[in-house]
Specification:
By secondary structure, the chain is of the alpha/beta class. It folds into 3 domains: 129 residues, Nucleotidyltransferase, domain 5 (2-Layer Sandwich), CATH 3.30.420.140; 69 residues; 127 residues, no CATH class. The chain is 61% helix and 13% strand. The strands form 2 sheets. The protein has a 5-stranded mixed beta sheet. Strands 6-7 form a two-stranded antiparallel ribbon. A hairpin with a 2-residue loop joins strand 6 and strand 7. Helix 6 runs antiparallel to helix 7, helix 8 packs across helix 9 and helix 11 crosses helix 12. The longest helix is centred in the middle third of the chain and has 34 residues.
Length: 346
């Protein structure tokens, strides 16, 4: 069956659209039908057992199957996890959308309560159901790598804060610096030890999965892409199972400029803030390294700047080139150097 017809059938089968506004302690639920009429509104504790009981009770009451439901919520980070786990376990379609998209699409923004927000999310899911991107629970290995990466980032943040404090004291208060050194040295030593453990654990998890290992190695053949960039890429893309094209990935990473025009006024293209900031930051560091290590990109950067282009715009263009290169080596499963030689020889 053609994929377009499959999509239409999925939309037709989903009779109930559930908008959920998530907070730490509770979730506000609004259930609407395809004609935007409100079926029910509830408040449920943000706990896996309570959420599961609510969804099962709803299906029993309305004699519905789990495939009849489309649940939509904003991305609130860790507070989403109970809902994500339950929807994955029950096989319920879950759409985790960017909060800014829902806000900008709302027709009525008068007043703000959790109840109203849930209703706005439900209405958004009905209006834009053809654009939904369903949540997929990452594999256990990817989840473990992500957890270790989060620990690593937290350790580095705290270590930098301590080191900055010691550096400032050294230049302005030698006595204080001696006291801080005595107090912080064991802590820095412990942080470095744990940082090394996280690094080894991430490397071990990658080594144990052949395709994961190969994808990381392929990305590292690209100038400017190191272990951290490659690791972040496999985490955010679920080892490249979440995206359909290089452009889709580039938009998600926030490196695609969009037109900024109004009437006869044409301004410089702008990058959307609706992006994965962590991936964008890593690509920025990769781009800075690439213009130093890659003769082709170094020449490209120099030429564009001499033409009068804004330096940050050129760096962003390099970030986009890195995404395209990453996508190419992953799709073709060949190292970047070999890929380049093949293209040049044609």
């Amino acid at each position: 069956m053609h994929s377009q017809w499959k999509q239409i059938i999925i939309i037709m089968n989903q009779k109930y659209f559930i908008g959920i506004d998530i907070s730490k302690e509770k979730i506000d639920v609004a259930i609407v039908l395809g004609d935007f009429s409100i079926l029910a509104e509830r408040v449920v504790k943000n706990e896996p057992s309570k959420i599961e009981s609510f969804l099962k009770a709803f299906c029993r009451k309305y004699k519905s199957d789990h495939s009849d439901l489309l649940v939509c919520c904003e991305n609130t980070g860790i507070y989403n996890r109970p809902l994500e786990k339950i929807c994955d376990r029950l096989g319920i379609a879950l759409w985790v959308e960017h909060a800014v998209k829902i806000k900008r699409a709302s027709i009525d923004m008068r007043g703000k309560t959790d109840r109203k927000d849930a209703l706005r999310i439900a209405e958004y899911s009905v209006r834009y159901q053809d654009r939904k991107v369903l949540y997929k629970e990452p594999s256990g290995r990817i989840a473990a790598i992500k957890a270790n990466q989060k620990v690593r980032e937290t350790i580095i943040t705290n270590r930098v804060a301590i080191e900055n404090q010691m550096r400032e004291a050294k230049s302005h208060d030698p006595e204080l610096h001696k006291q801080l050194t005595k107090a912080y040295s064991p802590i820095i030593k412990a942080l470095n030890k744990q940082l090394h453990r996280c690094k080894k654990e991430i490397e071990s998890l990658i080594e144990e999965e052949p395709q994961l290992k190969k994808n990381v190695q392929l990305m590292k053949t690209i100038p400017g892409i190191g272990m951290q960039n490659a690791t972040q890429m496999v985490i955010e893309t679920d080892n490249f199972n979440r995206f359909q094209s290089a452009k889709h990935l580039a938009c998600y990473a926030g490196v695609v400029p969009f037109a900024n025009e109004s009437g006869t006024m044409v301004r410089r293209q702008k990058i959307s803030k609706m992006a994965n900031q962590k991936m964008k930051s890593n690509l920025h560091l990769g781009a800075m390294a690439a213009v130093r290590a890659d003769p082709e990109l170094k020449e490209y950067f120099k030429r564009k700047v001499e033409e009068g282009k804004n330096k940050m715009s050129v760096i962003n263009a390099v970030r986009r080139k890195l995404v395209d290169r990453i996508w190419a080596v992953i799709q073709r499963q060949t190292p970047y150097e070999l890929e380049t030689k093949t293209i040049l020889s044609k």
